[in-house]
Write a structure and sequence with these properties.
Length: 145
């Protein structure tokens, strides 16, 4: 009887040891993707001012707490060179569906051809947004563009 108890105790101890070791080995697993998508291209005619060389589109929802702040931070970029568009899902559900926008706020920066050159999922700070637009413009237009 004592021999059987010792065998059971050894088996339990080995099982616990293997479980602990496997947790340590698998602890640095790759991050799980968010599942949110960002389009690679957009049709500039789907947004106001398609004639402007740059587009900053902020996909939003009226139920999103941080969306208004992102739109507010993007608005000063609106100029003869940059079209800024707020795209609320309540008013433009077809645009959200077309570009498979499944999380808000989603902000994209697109060039004159509709190629998305940068994007942000979630809230974005003013400096990040402005730097991204400046970097995109400099990459295509040159440093004096």
């Amino acid at each position: 009887m004592i021999v059987q108890l010792v065998i059971v105790a050894v088996i339990v101890a080995v099982t616990i040891g293997v479980a602990i070791a496997s947790r340590r080995v698998g602890g640095d697993a790759a991050p799980t993707p968010s599942g949110f998508t960002v389009p690679g291209r957009v049709a500039r005619n789907d947004f106001e001012h398609p004639e402007r060389p740059w587009l900053v589109a902020v996909f939003t929802s009226e139920t999103c707490d941080s969306c208004a702040g992102v739109v507010e931070r993007a608005a000063p970029l609106d100029s003869p060179e940059v079209a800024v568009a707020a795209v609320p899902v309540q008013d433009q559900a077809e645009t959200h569906a077309k570009y498979r926008i499944d999380g808000v706020p989603t902000t994209i920066i697109a060039d004159a051809h509709g190629t998305v050159v940068d994007s942000f999922l979630g809230p974005v700070q003013t400096i990040q947004l402005w730097d991204a637009v400046a970097a995109a413009r400099a990459a295509i237009e040159g440093p004096e563009g």
